[in-house]
């Protein structure tokens, strides 16, 4: 069954798309956790970070270059931002199509308070 991200990629459901190439799509999170909360998603369906294969090396590099470009466009490349990837249920992954969260535009607190 196609993930919600595949449905966005295929334009079956709407999203506020901020960046797109042949391999990658990025859009605003519908439940933002910061001033800017963007999801960067490969168009290739890969369930978890554990499922990345050697042939995906270029794709993963393109994702990080997209993150660099998006954060520069937002003007947060110099002030700072956080990139998060969750893996599997204990890691907080809710959509099983790998994706990278960009959080920024304000001071981001600690990852986890003890």
UniProtKB/TrEMBL annotation:
A motif (Histidine triad motif) lies at residues 97-101. CDD domains: PKCI_related. The active site is at 99 (tele-amp-histidine intermediate). InterPro entries: Histidine_triad_CS, Histidine_triad_HIT, HIT-like, HIT-like_sf. GO terms for molecular function: catalytic activity. Residues 4-113 form the HIT domain. It comes from the Bacteria. This is Histidine triad (HIT) family protein.
């Amino acid at each position: 069954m196609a993930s919600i991200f595949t449905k966005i990629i295929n334009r079956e459901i709407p999203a506020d798309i901020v960046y797109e190439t042949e391999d990658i799509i990025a859009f605003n999170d519908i439940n933002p956790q910061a001033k800017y909360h963007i999801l960067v998603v490969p168009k290739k369906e890969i369930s978890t970070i554990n499922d990345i294969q050697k042939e995906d090396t270029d794709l993963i590099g393109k994702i990080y270059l997209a993150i660099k470009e998006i954060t520069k466009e937002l003007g947060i490349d110099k002030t700072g931002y956080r990139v998060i990837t969750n893996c599997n249920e204990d890691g907080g992954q809710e959509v099983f199509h790998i994706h990278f969260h960009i959080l920024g535009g304000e001071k981001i607190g600690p990852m986890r308070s003890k």
